[in-house]
Amino acid sequence: MPQVVELALFRALQEGLTNVHRHSASPNVEVKFERLPESAVLEIQDFGRGLPDAVMERFQRTGTGSGVGLAGIRERIKELGGDFTISSSSEGTTLRSSVPLSVEASRGPAPDTGKVSVAKPAINNSALNLGRIS
């Protein structure tokens, strides 16, 4: 996977889990990662109180109104030609980031210049369900 994609999805995961911790009041979170032939998909689902309707409406319409975290994820994913969606109800919120893997390696690192070193486990299947965190 291109390094810029790895970093973008790592930062999306980091921000998503921070939001769950700070805002959702969810006792659990479910994280799913899937590497498809042409894209990588990260999904973070909590089982908390959800986002207020006005915040969701404004974010869907203008991309604002939710603080810098979600806007930052959206911009980072969009910069790589990907899609970022939020679905929310009184039963929880799901953040979904999908990034094409055809991103040119020559584009260099994403704007965030923080260096991240992550050990890569050997995974033979294309999907990884990281399960629930309680």
Given the C-alpha coordinates, what overall shape results?
Answer: globular
Question: What class, by secondary structure content?
Answer: alpha+beta
Low-confidence stretches: 108-127
Order of helices and strands: HEEHHEEE
User: Overall mean pLDDT score?
Assistant: 78
Primary descriptors:
5-stranded antiparallel beta sheet; alpha+beta; 134 residues; globular
Describe this structure in words.
This protein is an alpha+beta fold and 134 residues long. Helix content is 33%, strand content 28%. The protein has a five-stranded antiparallel β-sheet with strand order 3-4-2-1-5. The chain contains three helices and five strands. Mean pLDDT is 78; it is low at 108-127. α1 packs antiparallel against α3. The protein has helices at 3-24, 53-62, 68-79; strands spanning 29-35, 39-46, 83-89, 92-100, 127-133. The radius of gyration is 15 Å and the shape is globular. The chain starts with a helix and ends with a strand.
Short description:
With about 130 residues, this protein is α+β, with helices and mostly antiparallel strands. The protein has helices at about 5-25, 55-60, 70-80; strands at about 30-35, 40-45, 85-90, 90-100, 125-134.
Note the topology.
Elements: H1 3-24, E1 29-35, E2 39-46, H2 53-62, H3 68-79, E3 83-89, E4 92-100, E5 127-133
Antiparallel strand pairs: 1-2, 1-5, 2-4, 3-4
Helix pairs in contact: 1-3
